[in-house]
Specification:
The chain is an alpha/beta fold. It is built from eleven helices and eight strands. The longest helix is centred in the N-terminal third of the chain and has 24 residues, at about 25-50. The radius of gyration is 19 Å and the shape is globular.
Length: about 290
DNA sequence: GGAAGTCAAGTCTCG
DNA sequence: CGAGACTTGACTTCC
């Protein structure tokens, strides 16, 4: 069975990414916006449930400045009941959610001081899912980080950093190949060195190929081996025609997705779609390929 | 109300 | 060498 889902935003519902400028920060405002975002997220998840969609990525903007030093962290206490209710809804609906820290979460950052901020960011993302009472199948997805002109050294530093993480930050962590530095092959190696599961991003893998001679099915199966417990998860998107390489398209191309499905359709997979039109692509694909959940 | 400029953080590529 | 891309636009100012 293959499940598909979408990331962060429902294009027809209020956003769960409300924020404000750092210059206007107060704890009260942070709590107010976070509460509104949680409500909006609940509405999105409800809509998902009503429409049979059980896979979703939660925006990193849920709690404004959630990992910034200016934030007291009071949201973990004050909003714990809101998070718990949200998590109960996810569990009862058989849903799977994830988070994906942004470009600033560079696990192999050279600067130790900066790495401290990376740890805060991991703590924030993990805490959201922890407060929701969700198990480690609800993952936090990160890229390998920078290459710094020496991928061997950068990889070694990444492995050291991951091994040194407190278990509470490592338990949900999964690694994903990117389109510039860490190939699918690199990620497989990093996974075997760290024990973390790996997410194959099919589009990134097309932009920055590796494992030559192996087709989509073989590569997907290689990544499958990294998933010891939770269901395997991958990312799928298409190039936006006419835009620069790596830009996500408006919607999923039925033809290319169909070909991909042709090769992996019998594998147990959760596929996160990354498109501009969000939930619309999920509905369109489920319509075009009735076997999809 | 709408357009334009700005927003916590890093790294890399393209024009 | 600055803009754009990335998990994602959203907020603020100005007219």
């Amino acid at each position: 069975m293959i499940r598909i889902g979408y990331a962060c935003i429902h294009t027809a519902l209020p956003t769960a990414s409300r924020t404000f400028r750092l210059s206007g920060y107060s704890d009260a405002r942070m709590l107010e916006v976070a509460r509104a975002n949680i409500l909006a997220l609940g509405e999105i998840l409800r809509w998902n449930g009503d429409n049979g969609i059980t896979l979703f990525r939660i925006t990193s903007n849920l709690v404004p400045f959630g990992s910034h030093p200016v934030n007291s962290g009071s949201w973990k206490e004050v909003l714990q009941d809101d998070f718990r209710r949200l998590g109960a809804f996810v569990r009862e609906g058989g849903m799977r959610v994830s988070m994906h820290p942004g470009q600033h979460t560079v696990l192999n950052a050279r600067d130790e001081g900066y790495f401290a901020s990376v740890l805060r960011d991991l703590d924030y993302h993990s805490a959201v899912l922890d407060l929701m009472g969700l198990d480690e199948g609800h993952v936090v997805v990160v890229h390998g980080g920078g290459g710094y002109g020496d991928k061997g050294e950068s990889s070694a530093r990444l492995v050291r950093r991951i091994r040194g993480l407190p278990p509470v930050l490592r338990r949900r962590l999964v690694l994903e190949n990117d389109e510039r530095v860490f190939t699918a092959s690199d990620i497989l190696s990093l996974c075997s060195q760290t024990g973390l599961p790996g997410i194959l991003d099919v589009f990134h893998h097309e932009v920055l190929p590796s494992l030559e001679g192996q087709g989509a099915r073989e590569v997907t199966l290689l990544f499958r081996n990294t998933w010891k417990g939770p269901r395997q998860k991958i990312h799928y998107s298409n190039q936006a025609p006419g835009k620069r390489t790596g830009s996500h398209s408006q919607s999923i191309d039925l033809r290319s997705f169909g070909e991909f499905l042709e090769s992996v359709g019998d594998i147990e997979l959760d596929i996160m779609l990354e498109t501009k039109d969000k939930q619309a692509s999920v509905l369109a694909l489920r319509n075009a390929f009735p076997g999809l959940r």
